[in-house]
Design a protein that fits this description.
Layout (H helix, E strand, L loop, with lengths): L1 H34 L7 E7 L3 H17 L3 E7 L2 H13 L6 E5 L3 H7 L11 H4 L7 E5 L7 E11 L2 E6 L10 H10 L13 E5 L8 H6 L18 H16 L9 H9 L3 E7 L3 H5 L6 E4 L14 E9 L5 H14 L2 H11 L12 H5 L1 H12 L1 E2 L5 H17 L5 H20 L8 H18 L1 H13 L1 H29 L17 H8 L1 H33 L5 H13 L2 H11 L6 H10 L10 H29 L3 H9 L4 H29 L2 H7 L12 H12 L2 H26 L8
Parallel strand pairs: 1-2, 1-3, 7-8, 10-11
Antiparallel strand pairs: 3-10, 4-5, 5-10, 6-8, 6-9
Amino acid sequence: MVMAQVDTSARQGESRLSIVTLALLLFGIFLSFAGCQQSDERQVVTIWHQMVPREREALNRLIEQFEATHSAIRVRALYKETEELRSGFQVAALAGIGPELVYGPSDVLGAFHAMGIVKDMAPWFSEQIEDEFLEGALTYFPAADDPRRRELVQISDRLGNHLALVYNRDFIATPPQTTDELIELGKKNTIDADGDGRYERYGLVWNFVEPFFAIPFLTGHGGWVFDDSGQPTPALDTPECVAALEMILALRDEHGIVPRSCDYETADSLFKSGSAAMIINGDWSWVDYLETKGIDAAIAPLPIVSSTGRPMGPMVSPKGYSLNGFADAEAAQSAMEFVRFATGEQSQRELLNEIRILPSRKAVLQDPVLLSDPTLSASRQQLANGRMMPVDTELRAVWDAMRPHYQSLLGGKLTATAAAKAMQQDALRGIKLLNRKSSTGPAAWIWQLTGILLIAGLVVWQRQSLIEFLPDVRRQPFAYLLIAPALATIGLTVVFPFFYNVALSLSDMSLSNFQDWSIIGLQNYREVLSEAMFFWVLLKTLVWTAVNVLFHVGIGVLLAIAINGPIRGKMIYRILLIIPWAVPAYITALTWRSMFHFDYGAVNLLASNLLGIDPINWWNDPGPAFTACIVANVWLGYPFMMVIALGGLQGIPGELYEAARIDGATRWQQFCNVTLPLLKPVLAPAVTLGAIWTFNNLNVIWLVSNGGEPADKTHILVSYVYKAVFNLYRYGYGSALSMVIFAILLVASLVSLMRSRATENVYG
C-alpha cells in the first residue's frame, strides 16, 4: 500500500515536471519567434498632431527629409482629433508616458503648463535663434518654481489659424469691403429659383453653431472675450457683445442670407458644391477650396463693420510643437532635433509653397511667393487685423460658457441681451470651478486604513473560496499557467483602473493639483449629490435608457419572429437587418446627424414631400434633438436584440406550439404563454446588458448631438462626466460622478436579474 502511494506520488511529480517542461518549451518557442523580428535600434520620436490631410502630406515629406539626414532617429506622426489629442495627452501624461511631441494651436498650452506635462524647450533654443521668430510665434509661461523665469512651451512653424472670407468669383467679382456690402451681395446670391421655399444658393455660410466663428463679429463691434484689466476676466455681458450677437441673428432672420442651421460640414459642403457664394473659414481650408473643381475661389479679409468702422478681427494663434514633460533626456534631445529641423527656415519655405500658410520666421516673410501670392497677401492682411488668442486656461471656461447660450440664442430661446448675461455668469462660475482649491479632508491614513479593513473583510468573507483555491492551483498548475495572462490583463485593464478611480473620486485632483493631488474624503460625492443638474441629467438618462431598450427589445423580437418563420430569402433579410450593428457606430452616428439637417436632411425632405409636414429644425430645440439621438441609437441597437431573440426562438421545441394550437390558443396567446416565457432566460441578461450599454453610450449622444447640442440640453450622465472632466479639468468630481453611475448600474442590474430569475431553469 505504501509502495503504491509512493509510486503514485512519483508519477504525479513526473507529470507536473513534464507539464512545466512543456510550458517552458512553448515559452522558448515563442521567444525564438519573437527574436526573429528585425529590430530597429533608432530612437523613436512620436508626434501627435491634428493636421488636415494636405498638411499631413507636407509633414510626412518633412519627416522623410529629416530621417534621410538623421539616421539614428525615427519619427512617427499620429493623427488625433482636436479633443482626442487634448484629453489623450493629459491621460497619457498622468501615467508618465505619451508622445514626445504634440502639435497644435496654442490655446491648450495654459492647461498643459499648469499640469506640468510640457517641458521647457528654451535649453535647445538660444536667444539669438529666438529673435529670428515673429512676435507671438514662441509661447512662454512663468516657471512654477520661479515666476521671474520664463519657460518656452511651444515653438511654432506657422502663424495664423485665423478666419477669413472665401468667395466664389463665379458669383462675386469683388469681395465686400463692409458688412453693408456683404449683406447686399449676400441677398443677391441667396436664390430660390423654383419658389419651393428651399434655396438653391445662399449668400453666406459658416460654422454657425460654434462661438469661435462669432469672434470676428465681436471684435468688429469693439468687444473681446476678456476685459482690459490684464487679468483673464470675462467681458461677455457688454453692449459690444450684444450688438455682435444681434448682427449674427439679423444675417439669418432679417436678411435671410445664411441657412437656418449650418455646422462646419454643411458650410464646407455648400461652398464646395457651388451652393454658397461666400464662406467664413480658416487658413487650414483655403488650399482645399482653391483646388476644388467647379468653383473659382479666392481669399479676402473679413469686411469692416459698417456701424463701427472697425474691421472684423478673428482670433490668431501660432501652431507648433510642444515637448512632453516626461520625455527622458535622450528622447527629448532627438525630439528637439526634429523641432529645429521642422521649424527651420528651409522647412517653412517648403510649407509656404505647399499649403499657403503664413510662416513664423521673419526671414521667410520676405519670400517672393508670399509677396506675390494673392491668397497669402490676403492672409497677411487678415493676420494684421486679428487678435492673438489668449493662452490662459480661463479661456476654456469662456468657451464652455458661451457655447450653450449662443446656441440657445440661435434656437430662439434667449434674446441677445439675456444670452450675453448668461454667458458672463457661467464664465465666471466656470473660472471659479477651474481654479478652486478643495478643502482638506480627513488625513490620508484614515482612508488608507479604511481601505485595508475593507480588503481584510473581503478576504475573511471569501476565506472558504481561498482555502479551496490554493490546493486546486497545486493540482492543476498548467491550467492556471494558461489563464494567467488573461488574469493579468484583466487586473491591469479593469481591476487596477477601478480602484484607481475610487482613489481619484476621494481626491482633490484638478487642473491645479494634477500631479500632487491628495485624498480629501467625500467632498466630491457631496458636491455631485447636492447639484440639481445631476438629478435632472439622471432623469433624462433614465428616460433615454428606458425608451431605447424598449424599442430595442420590441423591434428586435418582432423581427426575430418574422424571419424565424417560413419566409423566402431568409438569409438575405438576416444580412440586411444586421447591417446597422455591423457598420461602425461612429459612421452611423454622423450619418444620422446629417439626415436630421434642417434644409438637406433626408428626414425633413421625406416628411415634407410624402407627408406634407413642415421641416423641423432638429438641432435648435432640445426635444427634437433628444428624439433624433434616440432614433439613431434605436437603429444601432435593435440588431443585437434581434440576434439574441432569434437564437432563443430556434431553441424552442415546435411541439409546444403544436400542443397550443390543439388546445385552441390564438397566435397572441401562443406568443404570451409559450414564446415569451421561453425567451425570458435569453432576453433578461441581454436586456440588462443592453440597458448598461445604453446608459453609458457616449458615442451616439456625443456624435449625433455634436457634444450636447443645443445648449447642452441633450447630455446624459456619461457625456456630462466627459464634459466635467475634460472641459473644466475637474478630475476628482468626474471620478466621483462615474462611481455614482457605477453604483446605480450595479444596483439596477442585480435587482433586474434577481426579479427576472434569469438564471433559473425555465422548465424548473
